[in-house]
Amino acid sequence: MTADSAKGLVLPLTALVALEIWARVTGLQSDSLAPPSDIVMALFGALADFSILAATRDTLFSAFAGLAIGTVIGLALGIAFGISDTLNRLMEVTVESIRPIPSIALLPIALIALGFGYRMEIVIVAFACVWPILILSRAAVRSIEPRLMEVARALRLPRLQQVWKIIIPAALPRIFVAFRLSAGIALIVAVTVEIAINPLGLGAGIMLAQQALRPDLMLAYLVWIGAIGYALNVLLVVAQNRLFGRAALSGDGR
Amino acid sequence: MNRTVILWRVASFAVAAGFIALWQLIANLKLVSPVFLPGPDRAWAALVRGFSTGDLGSKLIGTLEHMAYGWLLASIAGIAIGAVIGSSRTMRTYIAPSLEFLRPLPVSAIIPVAIAMLGLSQAMALFVISFGAIWPIMLATIHGFAAVEPRLYEVARSLQMSRLAVIFKIALPSASPDILAGMRLSLTVALILSVVCEILAGLDGLGHWVLLSARAFRSADLFAGVILLGVTGYVTSVAMALAEHRLLAWQAAQR
């Protein structure tokens, strides 16, 4: 396994060294490329003056706030639709006609209604996060072992307690999987909104670096954004394995 | 379709119509300023007007073109690269880890780099859209190739098939469900990136249309554009699902 992971490093390292040598030998002057060593220096510079850290805070704040709102709404709807087949069938057309709207299309609406800043970004992120959570938590609730629901009925638990004590714990592993997917989407949407229009966070930082003709800083931002995305993913996968183990995978009811 | 299914459908449409009526009511009572929220009547009128003057139609075609070119390029390149990587174990061990590292990168972050290289041009949009759309297709192809039933490869070896024949006659057909699922995912990515590129580069398309409408506070036109984008997302994904169903019919019959 270690030999294989070492092999995985060969390609990126070779590419980096090749780019470095090529840039140094040709004395590269470009608006879009920079030698890797300059990119590392730019990254350290941006870390030292806290500019990239402040941008990261802004982006993650918007992404997580949107994710939280989207999760609450998506979960509430998903559980309601999962419990009540009537409600699910009645809302089908409404849900299926709003869901395919690309989240980024809401950007101009959010822009005129809320202006630039955190709020419009949070609204768009929340909209994007609602759907995967809704769909997956609905499926999770439906696949709950029917005997658990019989127990709940036999105990005459009120509806709210049924949800709180039986449904949510039973569906939690798969709900967490949905949450993990949505966290990735939240980061992507937040960065995309910032790049497209919102003067805030990492997306605005990378656009500014491009407009200032600083390819080293621009690529440093790109590397940093990639690292944040990777770290977030790893963190959530580890959390999922720690918290739920195989339950997250085996909850399909198959 | 039996009768209960139809009845549920009708009821479901009625609920949706109820929401639209509620929207109309909110707009009529001016609970939300009409600058931000036009009623469905005004949005519909803007949609009709936009199509009759031809403005909206040409923007729609612009967006569809960006989306289609980027997606097709991504499909061809993604399947080709994925097939090369996926059909060789050595390639997989060397390349797959790098791909896994790049996968969670928000693809829109490549936009500034593309602008620096190609300027605010159609080429930039094509590059960004296909770069974003290639990932799901390529990763699905690699996965599909890696998951081919090993006995099929043994059969190929005993028949002494060439590598190209193995790819086209065995690996591609058996990986096709994965590949098509990847292509469907990419369709959404392509639409989103088309809109972003149009907003940023001012290219002819619905993204540019909605942004201009927002800047001018023409909310009816804005909603018309957003509705059209929703319809585009819906129709393309339904068309893809139908194509998938058709193309995979032979497999469903086999199982």
Keywords for this structure?
A: 254 residues, mainly alpha, MetI-like fold, 11 helices, disordered C terminus, B: 255 residues
Mean model confidence by pLDDT of chain B:
87
Could you give me the name of the CATH homologous superfamily of the largest domain in chain B? MetI-like
| Strand runs of chain B, count | 0
What is the tally of helical segments of chain A? 11
Order of helices and strands of chain A: HHHHHHHHHHH
Shape descriptor of chain B reads globular
For the record, what CATH class of chain A applies? Mainly Alpha
The CATH class designation of the largest domain in chain B is Mainly Alpha
Share in β-strands of chain A:
under 5%
Percentage of helical residues of chain A?
Answer: over 70%
Task: Write down the CATH topology of chain A.
Answer: MetI-like fold
Distance between the termini of chain B: 24 Å
CATH architecture of chain A: Orthogonal Bundle
| Biggest interface, chains and residue tallies | A-B, 58 and 56 residues
Beta strand count of chain A: 0
Can you put this structure into words, describing what you see?
The complex is a heterodimer of chains A (254) and B (255). Chain A has 254 residues and is an all-alpha fold. Chain A has one domain: MetI-like (MetI-like fold). Chain A has eleven helices and no strands. Chain A has helices at 2-26, 36-48, 51-83, 85-98, 107-114, 118-142, 146-154, 159-196, 201-211, 215-244, 247-250. In chain A, α3 (51-83) packs parallel to α6 and α3 packs antiparallel against α8. With 255 residues, chain B is mostly helical. Chain B has two domains: 1-31; 37-254, MetI-like fold, CATH 1.10.3720. Chain B is built from eleven helices and no strands. Chain B has helices at residues 3-28, 40-53, 55-86, 89-102, 110-118, 122-146, 150-158, 163-201, 206-215, 219-247, 249-254. In chain B, α3 (55-86) runs parallel beside α6 (122-146), α3 crosses α9 (206-215) and α6 packs antiparallel against α8 (163-201). The model of chain B has no long low-confidence stretch (mean pLDDT 87). At the A-B interface, α1, α4, α5, α8 and α9 of A face α1, α4, α5, α8 and α9 of B.
